[in-house]
Design brief:
Elements: E1 2-7, H1 10-17, H2 19-27, E2 32-33, H3 34-41, H4 45-57, E3 61-69, E4 72-79, E5 81-86, H5 107-131, H6 149-170
Parallel strand pairs: 1-5
Antiparallel strand pairs: 2-4, 3-4
Helix pairs in contact: 2-4, 3-4
């Protein structure tokens, strides 16, 4: 089972978004049969089987083993991944394009960049899986607390200068056999978990 899988097929995305099937995918983090699932989700086994066939048809669940019980063969299935991300490729005609309005201070532009990142990494993972290779990537994740909006602006200015200097140092347009890499650096307000029965307010 993969830790994370990217869904690029529109039909598979539609299947995964069905509430019942999404619940079955969550339950199938551990191998289970239709009978076991029916008891856990409170649905008839026949209905569970119907949904499982749809999930299996789109590669979201896989057969682990078959058990013979009298005259019946029980199929034990498992989700192909612990979690899933739907790529913007699944909505190709309406996926966001960062080139339309490049504004580094726009939250919507950042969202478009993030969507492109998901699509690009999904395509790389798909290709690498087929070729049985790994994808060379690097990511940095952290938090910083600014005392004021002025400090945040100053941080962004210094970060831009530092990244620009690094790119200028290592970028080699003439390198034969070199491979282009995309660099994305983002700063945005942290999203805190909201307790149930409360409403989250947007920070200014």
């Amino acid at each position: 089972m993969l830790e994370v899988a990217v869904i690029e097929d529109p039909a598979a995305a539609e299947v995964s978004l069905d509430p019942v099937r999404a619940r079955l995918l969550a339950e199938l983090a551990e191998p289970r049969s239709a009978t076991m699932l029916a008891a856990r989700v409170g649905l008839p086994r026949q209905k569970v089987n119907y949904h499982l066939k749809a999930l299996e048809r789109h590669g979201l669940v896989e057969l682990v083993e078959e058990r013979r019980k009298g005259n019946v063969t029980e199929r034990v299935l498992r989700a192909t991944a612990a979690s899933y991300v739907i790529s913007p490729v699944a909505l190709a005609t309406v996926q966001p394009d960062p080139a339309r309005s490049p504004d580094r201070l726009s939250a919507r532009w950042l969202l478009a960049l993030a969507a492109r990142l998901v699509g690009d990494i999904g395509a790389l993972i798909t290709g690498a899986t087929r070729a049985r290779k790994r994808v060379a990537t690097y990511a940095l994740d952290g938090e910083v607390r600014f005392a004021s909006a002025a400090d945040r602006a100053a941080f962004a200015e210094e970060l831009t200068a530092a990244v620009t200097a690094l790119v200028s140092k290592y970028h080699d347009e003439t390198a034969e056999g070199g491979r282009d890499h995309r660099l994305i650096v983002a700063v945005h307000p942290s999203v805190k978990a909201v307790p149930q029965n409360t409403t989250q307010t947007e920070e200014s």
